Amino acid sequence: MTALVSSPLYRTEALRQIRNPYTLVFTLVMPVAMYVLFGAGMEYGSQGVGHANVAFYIMVSMGAFGTATAMSSLCSLAAAEIGQGWGRQLALTPLTTTAYAATKLLTALSFAALSLAAVYVAGLTTGAAADDAWRWFAAAGLTLGLGLVYGLYGLGVGLAFNSDSGAALASISISFFGFFGNVFVPLEGGMLDVAKFTPMYGFAALVRWPATAGQLVSGGSDPLWAVTLNVLVWALLFAALVRLGVLRSRARR
After folding, report:
1. pLDDT digits (tens, 9 = 90+) for 215-244
2. What cellular component GO annotations does this protein have (predicted)?
3. Please, which residues have CB within 8 angstroms of residue 244's CB and are 6 or more apart in sequence?
4. Where are the domains of the chain?
5. For residue 68, which of 150, 152, 196, 204 is within the disulfide window of CB 3.0 to 4.6 Å?
6. Integer angstrom CA distances of residue 158 from 42, 80, 104, 129, 153
7. Which of 28, 7, 6 is nearest to 17 (CA)?
């Protein structure tokens, strides 16, 4: 019986990504640095927001950003490898396409968890606080679970562009989504109204939910149905991007 996940391939991929400075900077160093810059290093970090303080709010936001970056960039690399003919090489080995995809997904999820852990450890040691311990675990679980949506996004970008540039595009666009999705800086007025339709707005709002219950730093609140709908709509659009990428990849053969 063929294993769903290939342990040798997982070890190889994990070591390859650990040695990749691009992966380390964008998935591990950058989220922690941005948390320290905007959360731990600011006087307002100890102020309250919902059931936590602002440092916790920013820690969760940067954990979501690191997770989305890891999932999108590593899944786009996997898609690009398949598009470059790696699938034909796999056909010569006992490894199935399903096992290859599952191993790649597990690698991306592992780096997302590593990025999340790094940000949460930084938060734990620099004053991030919530009213109850379960809010930490709930926020982390929501981040990893909903972060799978960005695996779809990375897969779609990788298939559509079919080269290593897909990974760079996926990471850069995640930063763009973050800035315009109320992830890095609390938006107000017209910018906030537009942000509610962008890809990362619902994701960030839901992972903050255990701490804020929808309360916004700039005032007001989000209804749960609206941010959930945002995530569902963008998940469907990313799935459509994957479908488009598959069709485009087949057309190039």
Report:
1. 888 788 899 999 999 999 999 999 998 888
2. membrane
3. 156, 159, 160
4. 7-252
5. 150
6. 38, 5, 13, 38, 9
7. 28
DSSP for 83-124 reads IIIIHHHHTTSS--HHHHHHHHHHHHHHHHHHHHHHHHHHHH
Q: Where do we find the tokens 């709908």?
A: 229
Residue type, 198: T
Stated pTM of the model: 0.88
Sequence-distant (6+) residues with CB within 8 A of 161 are: 80, 169
Answer for the pair 70, 27: CB distance below 8 angstroms, yes or no. yes
Pairwise CA distance, residues 143 & 150, whole Å: 11
What six digits make up the tokens of 207? 């992972």
